[in-house]
């Protein structure tokens, strides 16, 4: 059985919502909005909360609805392109551990920096992540 992607889960929810809610339907069909941008918006909002974020399904779907209801939403273009993220749904977690939450984890890029001081050049060591 194939697992649905994050974008597919959001799209399915919003399509169902548009079918049931006549006030939301015209906002969902706005040509200036897209599912991909909506998902980038959700990931960007989660990223603002920290490196490893756990959100309830209602919070995630609420952000998706907010994206479509607001005309002037700023979406971080970097999210989804250069930042690696992993989304885990409560539907992918064993039943005993399920709490109806969505976990979004980010992999931070690690940069090597050069420190300069009084003629010395030192390279800092790469920082290891506890989450790898």
UniProtKB/TrEMBL annotation:
Say which domain of life the source belongs to.
Answer: Bacteria
What is the name attached to this protein's record? PcfK-like protein
């Amino acid at each position: 059985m194939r697992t649905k992607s994050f974008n597919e889960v959001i799209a399915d929810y919003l399509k169902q919502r548009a079918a049931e809610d006549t006030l939301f339907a015209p906002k969902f069909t706005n040509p200036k909005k897209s599912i991909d941008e909506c998902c980038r918006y959700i990931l960007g909002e989660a990223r603002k909360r920290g490196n490893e974020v756990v959100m309830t399904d209602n919070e995630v779907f609420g952000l998706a609805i907010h994206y479509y209801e607001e005309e002037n939403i700023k979406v971080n273009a970097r999210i989804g392109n250069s930042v690696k993220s992993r989304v885990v749904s409560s539907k992918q977690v064993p039943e005993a551990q399920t709490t109806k939450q969505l976990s979004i984890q980010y992999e931070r890029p690690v940069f090597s920096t050069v420190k300069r001081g009084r003629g010395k050049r030192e390279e800092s060591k790469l920082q290891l992540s506890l989450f790898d």
